[in-house]
Design brief:
The protein has 325 residues and is mostly beta strands. The chain contains two helices and 18 strands. The protein is elongated, with a radius of gyration of 29 Å. The structure holds zinc ion. The site of zinc ion has 7 residues, from loops.
Length: 325
């Protein structure tokens, strides 16, 4: 087997979109935005808080008295963003600003489209630029602009009647994953349809996927071992809750599987059997996808299916030494 492999690297995105309940106060604020209106809330001392909050920041009293405020106001402070990032509201340079709307006593954070920083100043007057299509979200305010700016009011109709009670909150992290040598070698073999683990020269345990070293002995695992497609169920769980963007419909079985000759389990799908028949110690075998679909991924194996072999006793799972069964 080759002792070195191209080091693989790929962008990964970790994240999900969750639905956040707005509650009645923020819901009312967002519903008003959808109607291109601004509402604040009256605090215990009579001041108008914008955006509205559920509880008085001083007395902690629950607040409920909404107050209409203007859609123009004064920049209280600001900072210039000369190189916008992907998640920013504008792809051109812009200002983050605290803007106190007329009729409100507190400033709200939003962005100002002023063209360049020279046009920004503390105390300047700005007004809302509404999005052409509103949906009950903070981005219904498509930024603020200097008050003298002419705006088109070419708005699309919004026939929504139900108040806003929830919003989608995306939470994503995209990063670059570099496999490192052990994983790159493992993935390169996987692309050829082979399951290749690594053996610890000290304790002789075989690890798949290999991490490049033995966690127990702390030594490098350079010795490669090709394993079979057969495995034993070490533990499993039946998934009943749908996972967003996952094409597999629940209920389905995810199992920790130990390949014959290996001493470390990995997670994979179990199929071609009734969920209720799955048990610890059950013998299974990999079902590979068609060769033309193979890539550098464990998804080359579509799932594992049961095979007609006697169960392995719990205390024996993952304890098989080299040579296998
Ligand atoms: Zn070891």
């Amino acid at each position: 087997m080759s002792s070195s492999a191209e080091i693989l690297s790929q962008a990964f995105t970790l994240g999900y979109t969750y639905t956040r309940s707005t509650g009645p106060i923020v819901g009312k604020f967002l519903t008003a935005l959808r109607d291109r209106k601004m509402v604040g809330i009256k605090a215990s001392d009579g001041k108008v808080l914008m955006p509205p909050v559920e509880f008085d920041p001083v007395s902690a009293e629950a607040l409920s008295e909404f107050v209409d405020v203007a859609d123009s106001g004064v920049v209280k402070t600001w900072t210039w963003v000369s190189e916008p990032r992907k998640a920013h509201p504008s792809d051109k340079p812009f200002a983050w600003a605290l803007i106190q709307l007329d009729g409100a006593d507190t400033p709200m954070l939003h962005w100002v489209d002023a063209g360049d920083a020279e046009q920004m100043s503390t105390g300047m007057r700005v007004k809302v630029r509404w999005a052409a299509q509103t949906q009950g979200f903070i981005s219904d305010i498509n930024g603020f602009v200097p008050e003298a700016t002419e705006l088109s009011e070419d708005y699309q109709a919004n026939n929504a009647e139900e108040p806003v009670t929830g919003i989608d909150s995306p939470s994503y992290l995209t990063y670059n994953f570099t496999a490192g040598e052990a994983t790159a070698r493992y993935l390169a073999q996987l692309k050829k349809g082979k399951l290749v683990g690594q053996r610890c020269p000290s304790c002789e345990n075989v690890y798949i996927p290999p991490r490049g070293s033995c966690a127990a002995c702390g030594v490098a695992t350079t010795d490669e071992v090709e394993l079979t497609n057969k495995a034993t169920v070490e533990s499993f769980t039946i998934v009943y809750i749908p996972i967003p963007n996952n094409p597999i419909k629940p209920p389905y079985v995810i199992a920790n599987l130990v390949l014959d000759g290996a001493n470390l389990s990995f997670l994979h799908l179990l199929s071609e059997c009734k969920n209720e028949d799955v048990r610890i110690g059950m013998r299974v075998e990999a079902v590979w996808r068609p060769e033309e679909e193979w890539g550098y991924a464990m998804e080359n194996i579509q799932y594992f299916k049961p095979i007609d072999e006697p169960d392995v006793a719990v205390e024996e799972i993952g304890k098989l030494k080299k040579g296998g069964r």
